[in-house]
């Protein structure tokens, strides 16, 4: 069963990208007009620019922290890029699980790129000013990519459920068409979440102090900066968080509950070991990503502090894109085997070239 031929590569969703870019452009134009119309009104929104306080302080350790984040960013981009390359080039990895994993790596590369480069440049130039339109674009892209990852991680649990609980029907239940439906559903969920929250958030009236105590334009921080009645926004935010987090997380819980029951009924110790090895990588990624996101979006605002928000946000926006490919590669013999075959092929081993590729 081959879910992903060599032409499947990640960038094969042009209709989604074009539609999202057009919608984003229209929303940004509309929101910019709303924001500019409020300039000069009462004591709100005197400027169309915001100021990000950033992740780095003025302490002596800020340079060291800057270097660490630079290394993490480039390692995350390289690790995810290598993962996509290996899945694309090695026929042994042309399966539904790795097809979905390649898109997970692509999403990780995209959303870390919407946050970290701006933060690093701000530190180098010594100021954290961000225009309203740039903040809106960052917010839109970030919410879209993170939302897509929430849904994709949840649906990847279904793949593991089918592989372990219904292995004989796996080629049918995880066919090429089903893979693309899962992928399209993830992107649609992320885009819907972004399209719902971005106009509402960025059309709020912001107080005269437009200092964002964060290193990027994140939803809870933007909400604290807003003035006036925010009840409607908070309700929509709650609904979106339930859709983004609790529904996919429920899919994960239900899938792994069935997996545990099936594994418990297995008589073979080797079969149990293989099943746990298959699922452990996905479980680790889900716990890391959903854990930090649940704190950020589901914990009531009185329990939030700026420093905690920065730490948890840094964890799932900066560290997780690096940890995902490392967890899936270091704990996965298929990926490490593909990497060894590519190295052997590059060194000119004819046996590996014929056999592995």
UniProtKB/TrEMBL annotation:
GO cellular component terms attached to this protein's record: plasma membrane
Coiled-coil residue spans: none
Tree of life domain: Eukaryota
Pfam (any one): 7tm_4
Signal peptide limits: none
GO MF assignments: G protein-coupled receptor activity; olfactory receptor activity
Main location: membrane
Topology relative to the membrane: Multi-pass membrane protein
UniProt keyword annotations, A-Z: Cell membrane, G-protein coupled receptor, Membrane, Olfaction, Receptor, Sensory transduction, Transducer, Transmembrane, Transmembrane helix
Transmembrane residue ranges: 64-86, 98-119, 139-158, 178-200, 235-263, 275-299, 311-330
G-protein coupled receptors family 1 profile domain ranges (all copies): 79-328
InterPro entries named among the record's database cross-references: GPCR_Rhodpsn (IPR000276), GPCR_Rhodpsn_7TM (IPR017452), Olfact_rcpt (IPR000725)
Subcellular location: Cell membrane
SUPFAM superfamilies: Family A G protein-coupled receptor-like (SSF81321)
Family classification: Belongs to the G-protein coupled receptor 1 family.
Task of the protein: Putative odorant or sperm cell receptor.
The protein's name in its UniProt record: Olfactory receptor
Organism: Leptonychotes weddellii
Gene: LOC102749920
